[in-house]
Amino acid sequence: MQVQRFGLVGLIKILTGLIIGMMFISSGAAASHDEAANSEQIPDMLIPLDSGNGAEYAIVVEKETQQLFLYANDGTVKEVLRMNCSTGKVTGAKAVAGDLKTPEGIYFFIKEHKDKDLGPIYGTRAFPTDYPNLLDHIAGRTGSEIWLHGTNKPLKVRDSSGCVTLENSDIDTIAKYITLNRTPIIIVKKLSYGPFDVKLEAKTSVLNIFSEWKDALENGTYHDYLKFYDPEYLPDISWWSEWNKIRKTIHTAPEPFSVELENILIIKYNGTYVVLADQVINFSGREIQAGIRKFYLTEDHFRIIGEEYQGMSQARRDKQDNPFMMACRNLGTKEDKHEIANMLDDWLKAWSSKDIQEYGNHYASDFQSQGMNLKAWLRHKGRLNKKYKYIRVSKEKLVVKKSKQRRVVSFVQKYESNAFKAVGIKQLILKREDGQWKIYRETWKKI
Fold first, then answer.
1. What tens digit of pLDDT does each residue of 65-117 get?
2. How far apart are CA 2 and CA 234, in angstroms?
3. Beta-carbon neighbour count of residue 22 at 10 Å?
4. Residue of 287, 280, 216 whose CA lies nearest to 255
5. What angle do CA 356, 348, 420 make, to 5 degrees?
6. Is the model's pTM score more than 0.70?
7. Which of 4, 134, 261, 262 could make a disulfide contact with 306, Cβ separation 3.0–4.6 Å?
8. How far is it, in rounded angstroms, from Cα 326 to Cα 332?
């Protein structure tokens, strides 16, 4: 009887040992699976891409495990940090204000608040995000002030009102990896992984789409441009008419011109790609920043279903300011001044050398001044050329102003001949003719 009891106890110990051993094996297998996921595969939402500016960082929050991950992306994707976090007290994706849920999707940090500006609930620092984004507005999701922040109380799982909360030491650590309006925070219920080569195929497809989109913007028609947009989404195209006029003017200039998307970032979530890029205008050897552009594309046929300018205030959105067009207008004014100054130098040189034919080439065919048309004006100047032994004309303090499709030019004109000297303010109205600026109207006032 005693032997039987000993045998039973021994059997229980053996079985217990087997179970514990199996648990360790299972745990080891799970750990190996995690390592494989991070070394051989990468999170589904991150697309490997080398921006050319060193590693880009992305923050991923997995609500199911209450974990926050930091990934580096420089053409390969690697996990850099992993830390505990806390999300909304109520599970599920945020839908309305006050539901105590944390949103799910792709967002960007737009501000940073330091310790001195914060209440104790936010810890040592806080990073507000751009929730609700365009897709949230389209879906009717409401709420605001979804932040990544620290806390001065013990960190507990699912303990926030919708924000993502970290220990103070962790928010201070991760702060150095955050670039405002550039670093994304991707919030998901559960992380999933996929093979590297599939991500490369997606990257190639997206980059090809935007290469064609760029060509349509530079050279295509209104309809060519709209082909890249989903039929259910109508982008704001009110600027196209003005852009088309500017584009035609720029194309007549000898300087090279292009619109580029640089520092491209591609992220995928729930069947949608978010593409963030610096929009840059290259013209005459200069680069002009034209806003940070953010596109939303469907995964199934790579069509744009939404777009906005990252970091653009609501006030500017309400005014419908377009950073691209603002850059184009400024570009035209600066480049016009350089082109116009050269034209005026040639005009004054022809005037001073009494080359009436070259002088006349700087005037528009419908020029008028002092009651004279172009032919009468050139006859008048020809008579003066014969009257004076020499003529010297120069300009100072050139000012160029834009007036619709024309330019108003003024400068201090110094005129000297063997019989006459004068200093005055010359004002010219210029217009485009045959791809060049020509003098359309001319006045002079003595000073």
1. 999 999 999 999 999 999 999 999 999 999 999 999 999 999 999 999 998 88
2. 86
3. 10
4. 287
5. 85
6. no
7. 134
8. 10
